[in-house]
């Protein structure tokens, strides 16, 4: 069975607004993938990579043009890293069938520097980047002209990857303090300002509904028609003594689970004693498909939803697809600061992507129809030397949020996304501003809806119209792996805070957690 999940996104032609804002539409395409040919005799990490590559179909892609004359190449839009790098036409993944089989990926549109008159080598073998799943890309640092949506950046420094397990490169739009080079250099967002295309290092990201085929990234502006209610302004977290941020991190106060089946809201409060008694640091990362929370939070969510954790092969958490129909109003709500709450609906976290391919998996699950759960645990990263008491909010969260990233003033603007909005009301952000404007209000309520068998009514009351009962619980113990979790858990003490960090996970790039999430697109067909 071939999935019809539409994940490939291209940055189409840019509309340069009269006020200097750069608006890049996101268009969703349909890659094809299947699970049947996956090797089942490889180590767990590799199998997990291949499984995710073929099932979740994640990542938001841009098609940009590099060189003179221009060559179209594929890159993944990523707020969790800072480098732009492209895949070489001679990359090992492009030429080695063994690597392609092992990683379940192949090359998409690649770059040949021999065909560009504006190409220059800056540092041979100087580019190397490592991601949290321990995968890497390596090669040279070069400069060449980049054209993105009709706008050209001259002599942009980028990585030229000759060794990679990714079929597409990365378009990093994070802080330049997180570039892979030992010497800091201006990245794409820096160059937008330096070349006077926008006046401040800020952009807004609107991924839109998972079932929709539209969205956009807006450099230098905010679209008030793309969010509901107030736009909350949050400081980007920096550890004591840290001069500037590395990642887009914010303090997350709580996560609550709203189940209509029993009319109760389960509220889990995450605690990081090194910061305060009620917050965990969360990284906002568009380059990661799923979302990851500390075990003290996921254990309780998993217990309430009777999930299945597979540690033998994939490290993933699975959930019964029945929640899409039996609890269509199920929601997870994330609270930041004093007044920012983002509600994530069931169809964003119960991902019905396996279909008939379940019979091809090397393990059995206790569900008649299993879905991938969009909320996973960070506990698995302890073996890589990371404290688990942090969160990474990927696409399963970000599609429900409208997020403004202000790199100049180290702020995040956040509001509930107005899904499938067809209108615009854009305001410009300028270099003269002292920060993100306060008091910005979007539309009053969700303007449109997307018909789908997965969606619910979004009701906040029980079936009798009454208010839901609230149940408050504390952190639970780790769920057994390879089994269904159920029932309430005893509370445990909060985990120790993240130590010696310049950000929750240091200077590592964050894209592609637990695999690179289906780096297929365009002409590339994974297996």
From TrEMBL:
A Pfam match is Asp
Which GO terms label this protein's molecular function in UniProt?
A: aspartic-type endopeptidase activity
Keywords from the named record: Aspartyl protease, Disulfide bond, Hydrolase, Membrane, Protease, Signal, Transmembrane, Transmembrane helix
Q: Which PROSITE patterns match?
A: ASP_PROTEASE, PEPTIDASE_A1
Q: Where is the composition biased (Basic and acidic residues)?
A: 461-471
Which SUPFAM superfamilies does the UniProt record give?
Acid proteases (SSF50630)
Indicate the secretion signal residues: 1-17
What the entry lists under InterPro entries is as follows: Aspartic_peptidase_A1 (IPR001461), Aspartic_peptidase_AS (IPR001969), PEPTIDASE_A1 (IPR033121), Peptidase_aspartic_dom_sf (IPR021109), SAP-like (IPR033876)
Q: Does the keyword Signal apply?
A: yes
Peptidase A1 domain residues are: 60-415
Top-level taxon of the source organism: Eukaryota
Q: Name one GO biological process term.
A: proteolysis
Ranges annotated as biased composition (Low complexity)? 472-495
Where is the segment annotated Disordered? 438-495
Segments traversing the membrane: 504-526
Which sites are catalytic?
78, 285
Cystine bridges: 321-371
**Into which family does the record put it?**
Belongs to the peptidase A1 family.
**What is this protein's name?**
Probable aspartic-type endopeptidase OPSB
Q: Which organism is it from?
A: Pseudoneurospora amorphoporcata
């Amino acid at each position: 069975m071939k999935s019809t999940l539409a994940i490939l996104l291209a940055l189409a032609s840019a509309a340069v607004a009269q006020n200097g804002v750069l608006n890049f539409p996101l268009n969703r395409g349909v890659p094809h993938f299947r699970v049947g040919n996956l090797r089942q005799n490889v180590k767990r990490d590799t199998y997990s990579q291949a499984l995710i590559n073929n099932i979740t179909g994640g990542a938001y892609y841009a098609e940009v043009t590099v060189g003179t004359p221009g060559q179209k190449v594929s890159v993944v839009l990523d707020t969790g890293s800072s480098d732009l790098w492209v895949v070489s036409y001679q990359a090992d993944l492009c030429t080695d069938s063994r690597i392609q089989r092992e990683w379940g990926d192949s090359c998409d549109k690649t770059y040949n520097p021999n065909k560009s008159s504006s190409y220059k080598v800056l540092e041979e073998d100087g580019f190397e980047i490592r991601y949290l799943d321990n995968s890497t890309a390596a090669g040279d640092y070069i400069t060449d002209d980049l054209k993105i949506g009709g706008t050209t950046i001259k002599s942009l420094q980028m990585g030229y990857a000759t060794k990679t397990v990714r079929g597409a490169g990365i378009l990093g739009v994070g802080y330049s303090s997180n570039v892979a080079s030992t010497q800091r250099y201006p990245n794409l967002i820096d160059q937008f300002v330096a070349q006077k295309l926008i006046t401040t290092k800020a952009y807004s990201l609107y991924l839109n509904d998972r079932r929709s085929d539209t969205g956009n990234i807006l450099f230098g502006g905010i679209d008030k028609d793309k969010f509901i209610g107030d736009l909350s302004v949050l400081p980007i977290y920096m550890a004591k003594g840290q001069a500037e941020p590395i990642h887009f991190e914010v303090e997350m106060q709580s996560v609550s689970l709203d189940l209509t089946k029993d009319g109760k809201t389960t509220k889990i409060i995450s605690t990081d004693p090194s910061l305060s008694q009620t917050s965990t640091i969360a990284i906002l990362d568009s380059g990661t498909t799923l979302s990851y929370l500390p075990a003290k939070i996921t254990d309780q969510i998993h217990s309430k939803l009777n999930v299945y954790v597979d540690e033998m092969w994939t490290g993933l958490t699975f959930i019964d697809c029945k929640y899409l129909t039996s609890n269509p109003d199920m929601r997870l709500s994330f609270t930041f600061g004093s007044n920012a709450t983002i509600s994530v609906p069931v169809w964003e976290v119960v991902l019905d992507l396996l279909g008939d391919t379940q019979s091809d998996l090397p393990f059995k699950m206790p569900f008649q129809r299993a879905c991938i759960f969009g909320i996973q645990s960070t506990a698995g990263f302890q073996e890589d030397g990371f404290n688990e008491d942090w969160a990474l909010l990927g696409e399963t969260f970000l599609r429900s949020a409208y997020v403004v990233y202000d790199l100049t003033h180290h702020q995040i603007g956040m509001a509930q996304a107005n899904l499938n909005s067809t209108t615009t009301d854009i305001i410009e952000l300028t270099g003269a501003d002292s920060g993100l404007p306060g008091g910005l209000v979007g539309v009053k309520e969700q303007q449109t809806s997307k018909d789908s068998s997965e969606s619910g009514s979004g009701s906040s009351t029980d079936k009798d119209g009454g208010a839901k009962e609230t149940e408050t619980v504390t952190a639970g113990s780790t769920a057994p792996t390879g089994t269904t979790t159920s029932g309430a858990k005893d509370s445990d003490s909060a985990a120790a805070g993240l130590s010696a960090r310049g950000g929750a996970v240091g200077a590592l790039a964050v894209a592609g957690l637990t695999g690179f999430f289906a780096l297929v697109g365009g002409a590339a067909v994974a297996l």
